[in-house]
Amino acid sequence: MSLLVVGSVAYDGIETPFGKVDKILGGSATYISLTSSYFTGNVNLVGVVGKDFAEDDISLLESKNVNLKGLQRDYSGNTFFWRGKYHYDLNNRDTLDTQLNVFEHFDPLIPEEYKNAKYVALGNIEPSLQNKVLDQIEDPDYVVMDTMNFWIDGTPDALKRTLKLVDLLVINDSEARELADEPNLFRAAEKVMKMGPETLIIKKGEHGALLFTRGEIFSAPAYPVIDIFDPTGAGDSFMGGMLGWIAYTNDRSSQNLRRAVIFGSVMASFCVEEFGPERLKNLTEKEIYDRYREFRELSQIPEIS
Amino acid sequence: MSLLVVGSVAYDGIETPFGKVDKILGGSATYISLTSSYFTGNVNLVGVVGKDFAEDDISLLESKNVNLKGLQRDYSGNTFFWRGKYHYDLNNRDTLDTQLNVFEHFDPLIPEEYKNAKYVALGNIEPSLQNKVLDQIEDPDYVVMDTMNFWIDGTPDALKRTLKLVDLLVINDSEARELADEPNLFRAAEKVMKMGPETLIIKKGEHGALLFTRGEIFSAPAYPVIDIFDPTGAGDSFMGGMLGWIAYTNDRSSQNLRRAVIFGSVMASFCVEEFGPERLKNLTEKEIYDRYREFRELSQIPEIS
Description:
Oligomer: homodimer
Strand order of the largest sheet of chain A: 5-4-1-8-9-10-11-12-13
Strand content of chain A: 25-35%
Mean pLDDT of chain A: 94
Structural class of chain A: alpha/beta
CATH topology of chain A: UDP-N-acetylmuramoyl-L-alanine:D-glutamate ligase
Number of helices of chain A: 10
């Protein structure tokens, strides 16, 4: 089924304890599109880039059959740029520079041919823009959304309006606690789901993820990546892998949502192995399915005879 | 198989956001004995109590068939007493009072009839005492040990000597990082296992536990206890459930160690439902096995057809 992806397309400058890169392709829509493209052939991107956006990066997305009709080109400035530095433990980072550039006036216009999209991925952008996207989609079957503390603090009302329209919300544990104003994660999940989404995924970084749906909980393990090289894009890769699988199978049963969470974890685990989206450029189907099976083995609880 | 349990027997004063109790049975050897007794009929305790130790508490342990021949009674003082207060999120606690009392001069003497013990549980006590216990055991098959930051900081050399004699070490994530002086948990695990234990369990509190054995990793989920009432004894109950299962089955295969980790998690999840060891007094076999199956369901990753 067709998948519409809306979010940022950016350049990132990244420093980790293992190296440094001055300018590399980034942005939530980029990671979601790249990762979901391994599952579904019908990925439609909406975003904006500036005059500095490289032909090579266009080619990369096109090589993955990502439809770029909705990628606006704004020649009045440069592409959104973020620069950050990760600490030794890789769980924390400092933002050193943020240049919104053409992203500051991003107006997500959905091309006619995208308007019948059944699956919609709202990357982490301003909730009022996420809302505006949904206004333009005729009859979406399944809306998945990411958000962050910045919007929970800054624009809580717009966020709550968007949440009412969302089927699946993907956030991390501290965001869930903050959004619900509740320290207990399981109680926080209950409160967040009352705000709209019937399904909730709480990402716990190195501790895996929790899926809450239809009164059921699924606890997904994290992949024991010994060498996390660069965490940039991991959350968006999770969302792309997950939604790519759901759109491909067009199956939102509890069992298949479990599979989707694992495919999300698989894509995130690949993402962090190299700088930026490097590792996501040339994955094979075998690598992806093998890692799914590794996840399965990792958390398999034997029966008691 | 026979299981020898060495550790503290204590009284605790506990305050949580949900209530307060002035004096309740506690201590690592108590929790390990109570929980393991549900699996194996041959639990032998070594510890010390003071003149204030109540007949009811003796009766409780005896009712679970815990052999108390190694429980010393020292009439020169009172039983080890600890008082603490948990914060709102239950992950942190303040120690308000510690009275070592008769535990200060605890000399773990192993009764003759315990000396051929095959399974040995060393609760979290001074490493030199743990060492002294092992010196007295003729030919233990499997030694399991708990420790804490206090000993990692305070008596690192004695701790490292004990570690060389240990088959399975159970610690939490921050302790593993500190012991290995390595922030990456998986790398820390590798370093800790080089210190002696061929099997390592890292407890991650609300995030479950990791089992490292024979080049294999198992990621166990946490039980989504909505209402943690009192976390006291959870870690020791984990150890008791785990080792009780191993001693009962006398099977240390990777697959059975996975089961043991889940039974440990099961007993910890019961423990936190009421104050102190209250919930551990009258569990049924059905409750324990049902919860094992719940854990299994919670983390079941479906196959891909």
